[in-house]
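<instruction>
Derive structure tokens from the sequence
<entry> Chain with its tokenised backbone below:
===
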Amino acid sequence: MKHLLTLADLSGADIEAMLALAEAPPAPLLTGKGAALYFEKPSARTRNSMELAVHQLGGHPIYLTAGELGIGTRESVEDVARTLACYHGVICARVFDHGLLQALAAASPVPVVNMLSGTDHPLQGLADLLTIKQLCGRIEGVKVAYVGDGDNNVARSLAQGCAALGAELTIVAPEGYQLSDAPAGVVQTADQAAVAGADVVYSDVFVSMGQDSETEKRMADLAAYQVNEALIARAPDAWFLHCLPARRGEEVTAGVIDGPRSAIWRQAENRMHTARGALMWLLQQD
């Protein structure tokens, strides 16, 4: 059984196949079936993109919360996985603990998809790669500069995808905010001058969900890594990407995120297309 828990589990050919399916006509692979969408964290893009992707494949998405399932309290992870598989062709989960996804996948007779965990965000990574391909005409050899907090789930999945498909990723972040398990070939530096010559500049919030107690320290540590007009001038032809939600005036200025080289809305739309492509690939493997 194939699952999508992290892009690190996939080959470059697997990722390319998902991206190709994202741009292909939808196949009715979920006709007459449900899709369990389990959310421990709220979401705008993930819920909307996944529900529509399931619908486009002929399935019926069911939104589930922690209170409804009671995983690990009212019922074991294994029993929840087997129960959901009685009704659904796929189980998708947005969770705090990546280990919960691994436990679901170990017990589930249907594909399990990571809609976000504390360590990985593969669906965002796929959308990022598809957007880069559409903007630059290729992925291999494209120079991507990720600026800001580089040790999070978005940066990790982007790094895994770039490494698999040959993009040249540089994480520009101060010490303590660089990716702790960067794949081979990913460059990390604290020097903002490394943005020069980038084809794509990528940013994410300085304070992610669940890090509110660290707000003051993070804002101070990362203030110099704001993507603003001065920084983007080092790469004047670069496209700007952001996984959203964004905080204008913190990690990025309004002038950059709303500017003519910003592709954030195409990137957001691609969350739906790549979710559909990933589901098609998994269900065809099944």
Remarks:
- The chain has a mean pLDDT of 97.
- The two ends are 6 Å apart (CA to CA).
- Strands lie at 34-39, 60-65, 88-94, 112-116, 143-147, 168-172, 187-189, 200-203, 239-242.
